[in-house]
Each structure stands twice: as structure tokens, then as C-alpha cells.
Amino acid sequence: MRASTSKIGWWFCLLRKALYFIHLWLRDNCQCSKCVHPDTRQRMVDTFSIPKDISVKDIKRAEHVKVEWSDGHIGEYPFRWLAAHNYRKKPYVDRSRALQFRKFKQYTPAVEYPTVSYSDVMAGDEGVMMWLQNIYDWGFCFVKDTPVDPESTEALLKRIAFIRHTHYGGFWDFTADLTYKDTAYTTETLGAHTDNTYFTDPARLQLFHLLSHTGGEGGASLLVDGFKAAQTLLEENQDHARALMSTRHPYHASGNEDVCIQPVEQYPVLKTHSQMRGQLYQIRWNNYDRATKSDWWFDEQERWYEAAGHFNEIIHRSNMEIWTQLEPGTVLIFDNWRMLHGRSEFTGKRRMCGGYINNDDFISRYRLLKFGRENVLQQLGNVKGNPKNPFSFV
Q1: Does the pLDDT of residue 181 top 60, yes or no?
Q2: 193-235 tens-digit pLDDT
Q3: Are 334 and 203 in contact, with CB atoms under 8 Å apart?
Q4: Which of 65, 86, 289, 349 gives 20 to 30 Å between its CA and that of 218?
């Protein structure tokens, strides 16, 4: 067993078989308890803080392989894990289309937050339509003057459609107690991410209502417009945009003993519409839930890490971050297919409620309210990009 001088990384002589890995991939996928949470099984290492020139200082073989990295970390890699994730195929060839964008509004501090009132939404479909239009245009919306109780919040969410039930339950009413083994149920900082990357069909809408926060402070809410970030990425480096469109990744939710959820296939960070000339319609970005990917060639790995690092730098820019402090009585709802969300660390006890709504149910309600049932039925099957076509709104 020895370190390789090759730029593609280093290899192990294991069971008479050479296993090849690049440094960055192997450091990113360290299996020690500091890098993979022992309870939630989520990725804890900050991928984008790893030095690009990371190198191996020493390798030791015991009950598993231990690697001393140039950043001081001691990596741990079980033999079976290494064998399972070794992959060799022909070099990657990019055949992705150009990235396109639908019309959308970009929030800046110069404008007020998109907001509706609870009473208007509950009063009739006109208020619901105003609410959904804000969500579709801006990616998020606040609902002010909401009664501070879970029953009223649940009734508000059901004005759109039925609430999606997942392994977290249906309508949530929770505190940070790790009932569900997920970092969302802690008091820790959460970086900008999208939810449900481990589902084949991630929930489209996500709603939060802070019911109370006692005995502490912090917990500011973060939103980042993923469409705006992707647009910036494309403007700054088209190759990076193509890499995030074409390279597919596995995700998982495996914290609780009775759960190990993975999507039916791997998905890229930037999901584009095959019938609308590459129009972006979904962002999947969650470094916590990204599983170890083995089915990619070395140049594809290097290409993706460079592109992902660029995207990560963009979403951390101050002009990309929308920070708000949620208060009882003000509900936040956002498009989980577009907006990344997170929060700052907090102390004390917070009680939150909320829930998910599926994409198809949200879009159905939106199209019917915007165009009317007859117009929607007349355009069934039409995928032309036309502002009068309900099905061009995805």
C-alpha cells in the first residue's frame, strides 16, 4: 500500500486489486464520526473548506485504512467501503444543453418582502391566488397576522392543497429534540440547502411558523434564490453550469433505524426541462444528505467539485443571502424547488410548526386559479413556451 504520484490520486493494493481515487473525493467522503454523523448518517464535513490541493501525508492499514491528510485530518476508510466505491469507466463526455431560465423576480433589499395577510388568504380564492403568484414569482412569501396556534397554521396551508405526509409526519409541531435523526431537529447552524433531495419527488412548498422562542436567542432564517445563483454561475462560467446540469448524484435519509430513503435514480444539482429547451425548474442542493458517489470517472469528479465549489461560493455571497428573524404570527412559505433555506445557531427552546405540499398539487391549484378550468383543459398536453399556456408554468 503506498501513495501514488499520479494526479488522479492514490490507490490501495487490496485483495490483489488496485483501487483508484482522487484526493478530494476521498477526503470529502471520509467515513469517520467527525465527517459522518453517527446518529443521522448525514455528511458533516464542509466539502468546500477542503483545500483543493489536499494531499496524503501517511497511510496506515489496521482494522481499516487510516489516512493522514495534509490538512491534519485523520481519515478512516473501511476496506469493504473502499472496494464498493471504486469505479472506473471511460472519461466523461458532456452532452448537456444550454441552461435556460423562466421569468422570475429577484428579491433585493430595495423592495419589500412579498407579503399577504392571513385574512385575505382565508377569505377566498382571490387571496389564495395572490399568495401563490408571489410564491411563483419571488420564490417565497410571508403571511402576516396569522393566529399563533398550529390549528390556524394548518388550515392556512390546506388553502393550497393537502399536506404531504413523509417520514417526518404530516403537519409538524416540533422542537429541536432529535426525535427524527436530522440536523433540522438540532440547535446547530444549518447552511443553505433544499429539502427532500433523497426523495424521487421532493416536496415543492415548505411552510414554517415560529410559535414561540423562550430562554434564548438566535435562529435567524436564511433564504437564497437558487435560480439567481444558477444564473450567476452561468454568467461567470458556462462549463461549471453544465457540470451541475449533467453530473448526477445519490442522496439519502438514513438517520432513524426504520428509514433508509433514496431516490429511484440519481439527480443533478440543476434539473432542466427536457421539453422546454433546457429550462431550469429544480435545484437539488444538500451537502448533508449527499451520499457517496462512485460511478464517475476522475475528470468528471474534478470537474464537478470545481463547479460545486463555485456554486457554493456564490450562495454565500452577501448579496445572495436573505436573512429574516421569524416571529410568532408571521408565516414563511417558500418554493423548495428554487429557494435554498437555512438558519443560524440558536439557544433556548423554539417551537415550530409547518408542513410540505407536493409540486403537482401546488401547480394544479396555481394554474386553475390563474387561467380557469376551461382554459387549462383546452391546453392539456401542450408544452409550448407561451404565457397563455398554463402548462408552460412549471
Answers
A1: no
A2: 999 999 999 999 999 999 999 999 999 999 999 999 999 999 9
A3: no
A4: 289
